[in-house]
């Protein structure tokens, strides 16, 4: 993982922990997950809203520390609203 990647742990529908991370490539965000520390990272085609909100939270916190530009927050919020129009940001 690169220093700019945002990672977290969440629980899936079956109750298993998943390690998830998001990697920004230009304006696109790629999501990856793995069930355990020694497993391979698998690309996620359609990450759920909760993962997008984790990335948005991470970008907001990093923008406060000037690691991301404020425009990045606005761009990511627009991307989340486009994918999930009814989501509360």
How many strands in all? 4
Number of helices: 2
Which range best describes the helical content: under 10%, 10-25%, 25-40%, 40-55%, 55-70% or over 70%? Answer: 25-40%
> What is the gyration radius calculated from CA atoms?
13 Å
Helical/strand content category: alpha+beta
The end-to-end span amounts to 27 Å
Helix-strand pattern: EEEEHH
Poorly predicted ranges: none
Shape: globular
Order of strands, main sheet, comes to 1-2-3-4
| Domain count | 1
Strand content: 25-35%
Main sheet properties: 4 strands, antiparallel
- The mean pLDDT is 92
Topology:
Blueprint: E1 6-11, E2 17-25, E3 28-34, E4 42-44, H1 49-64, H2 70-83
Antiparallel strand pairs: 1-2, 2-3, 3-4
